Amino acid sequence: MQRSSHWALLVAFGLLFGVGMGADTGMASARSPSALERSMGDIQWGWSPKQVYRHLKKKIEASYREPISKTTDAIEEDRLRHKMAEETREIRDSYLEFDGTPSAYDSGYLKGEFTHKNGESLLRVRTKNTQDFFFFINERLWKRYRAFDASVFEGASFADFGGALQQRYGKAKTKSGVPTPGAPSTQ
User: Fold this and answer.
1) Confidence at residue 187, expressed as pLDDT on a 0 to 100 scale
2) Measured between alpha carbons, how far is 75 from 72 in angstroms, rounded to an integer?
3) What is the spatial distance between Cα 32 and Cα 157, in angstroms, rounded to a whole number?
4) What is the residue range of 42's domain?
5) What DSSP state is assigned to residue 2?
6) Does 162 fall in a domain?
7) Residues 65, 94, 126, 16: is their CA dihedral positive or negative?
């Protein structure tokens, strides 16, 4: 099955910078972090692409530490090290600056999530069931967009999917607007 078909039921959400606008004010917060903030792990709004990459690389290396240490087979150890290096290389090579050069993102589901020639860039991370897109403006993390693999919610209706997201991340807010000037208003 092709990768693109895994994303047939692509549903995503963005964690806009508004979630973390007051993230590092120097004052301790009495409130506990939201589910959206917890989903970021240790990654912080405002980090540079290098900081995010280094953090993700350390997490990948840590996930391989135990399997590598437990194996007594040199070929298996080499296979694990190669897989670990491939995962980190894929993240590093995914970095893209939106400098006006056309890319697949211009016509894909991320179209409209970024603009060219404004200092914006992205870093993509694939997991078993998702793709995370970390967006940067002027080298500062300001948004994360998570795309779920269609298999995660296979057979579920959109209402079921929305309910599952709201259960995990909190109640959704309804917004109305005009997606294209001159088009009818939508919700």
Assistant:
1) 63
2) 9
3) 32
4) 3-21+32-167
5) -
6) yes
7) positive
Work out the average pLDDT over 6-10.
35
Cross-strand bridge partners of residue 147: 12, 131
This prediction has a pTM of: 0.72
Helix (H) or strand (E) holding 143: strand 140-148
Residue 42 located in a structural domain: yes
- pLDDT tens for each residue of 66-87: 999 999 999 999 999 999 999 9
CA 47 from centre of chain: 14
pLDDT value at position 23?
43
When divided into structural domains, the chain yields a total of 1
- Residue 24 CB coordination number (10 Å): 10
Query: Which range in 29-33, 113-117, 146-150 is most confidently predicted, on average pLDDT?
Result: 113-117
**Rounded Cα gap, residues 6 and 151, in angstroms:** 7
Whether the CB-CB separation of 77 and 71 falls below 8 Å is answered with: yes
Whether the CB-CB separation of 152 and 131 falls below 8 Å is answered with no
Q: Which candidate, 63, 68, 70, 62, places its Cα nearest to that of 81?
A: 68
